[in-house]
Design a protein that fits this description.
Oligomer: homodimer
Largest sheet of chain A: 3 strands, antiparallel
Number of helices of chain A: 5
Number of strands of chain A: 6
Structural class of chain A: alpha+beta
Strand order of the largest sheet of chain A: 1-3-2
Strand content of chain A: 15-25%
Order of helices and strands of chain A: HHEHHEEEEHE
Radius of gyration of chain A: 18 Å
DNA sequence: GGACATAATGATATTGTGTCTCAATAGACT
DNA sequence: AGTCTATTGAGACACAATATCATTATGTCC
């Protein structure tokens, strides 16, 4: 079942935000990007192809809003860079694993258990409001078949 | 037991890198930063105060090397920015929790268990070479005493 | 100690990424 | 349709980091 742009537009509406031309363009664009990553700049490029008038700032602003709405995931790479990703299972909490060689991204539902998080909270006088978890590695295609078990073990 | 600059310089030597003036300056500087965070730019500023000739690029290069040597931790904040931190327990694997209000950083040794990581690895055709885990929240001082349990639950 | 090969440096230009400002525009509601 | 104001777009700006390359200085060998 494909995701429709309405999902995004509805989220905007529910937040009391207006449905504008650029936001429509982006919504239509994003549902077609499922499974791929892009920088905000790249998203702007893609949007320009559909509407030569959309402004750079508008796209950057939309990316920020969509992140807050949990419709856009920020994926961090091993080199410190990041890209965004419109995930199909946006509603479900998940993390990502990225291939440090080819950049492939896969969603994983692994996470710390509530108990583990509660334990951290009890040890440091902090109330934990969120966390970020990223896995780095090599995908099957990039892993050298001759040395399948080479690990850097930066665990 | 305070950390000495030798720890850093020795790490350089063991990697086959030369001990240079700028690197000495940085080593001495870093051991005095324990418990605080800084950007590469800020580190450069601090270095300039001790040696007006150190170049910007040199400091940035050193930061990169020190990260590889696991002597400098890259700490990510909730807003997407990052700073570096010379941790006293650099040898021991750990993560950080940052206060999204005042920016305070605390080291936590919580982490996924080896089993959890192994499970991820078995589910996605990836060999996991590393991961990054950051906790965000509010420290005791920043948390509103009247509403101590407000959570955003971005878990 | 002196000479050598080259790692490392520093100045500068350049790129990349994202933010800010503000007048103009256009949703949404009546 | 008219009004209010969120949103937009252009461009200036800020910041972070990298690339280039001639010069310097380290470590090593003698």
């Amino acid at each position: 079942m494909p995701v429709t742009p309405e999902v995004i537009l509805t989220a905007f509406r529910q937040k009391g935000l207006r449905i504008t031309g650029p936001r429509r363009t982006l919504a239509c664009l994003l549902v077609e990007t499922v499974g791929s990553e892009f920088t905000a700049e790249q998203l702007w490029d893609m949007a320009l192809a559909r509407d030569p008038d959309v402004g750079r700032a508008t796209v950057f602003r939309a990316v920020e809003i969509l992140q807050e709405l949990h419709l856009l995931d920020r994926v961090e790479f091993a080199d410190g860079s990041h890209r965004f990703r419109f995930c199909n299972n946006a509603k479900q909490h998940h993390h990502h694993i990225t291939c440090s060689q080819c950049g492939k991204v896969i969603e994983v539902d692994a996470c710390l258990s509530a108990e583990q998080i509660a334990k951290v909270e009890s040890l440091v006088d902090f109330s934990i409001e969120g966390h970020r978890l990223e896995f780095f590695g090599r995908c099957g295609e990039c892993r050298d078949p001759a040395n399948p078990s080479i690990r850097h073990n930066t665990y």
